[in-house]
What we know:
This protein is an all-beta fold. The protein has strands at residues 4-7, 10-12, 18-24, 33-39, 46-51, 57-59, 67-72, 77-82, 91-100, 105-109, 113-117. The protein is globular.
Amino acid sequence: xxxxxxxxxxxxxxxxxxxxxxxxxxxxxxxxxxxxxxxxxxxxxxxxxxxxxxxxxxxxxxxxxxxxxxxxxxxxxxxxxxxxxxxxxxxxxxxxxxxxxxxxxxxxxxxxxxxxxxx
Length: 119
């Protein structure tokens, strides 16, 4: 069983920055694909960014050029650097881990961290 613990959320003014962190338990992190998703009230959970085990990243169009994603396999941690934040970025942000165990894909979610962008 993998546990994902997110941190770094909070209240920030428009144009500001935040860095989210997600630390995973267990030994599969370095071989896992990691992702960040977000969900605003009354909406579905949407993909924000992903990073493969090899470090290749992809982003939702709405955050391209503003957000970056990185990982530190030695710390079992993935980061989401969010710059030039907008009110529409307000949501609960969830960390996601996906690992192929040789038979099926195992998936795990963090508990979420609230990001509020408001003046």
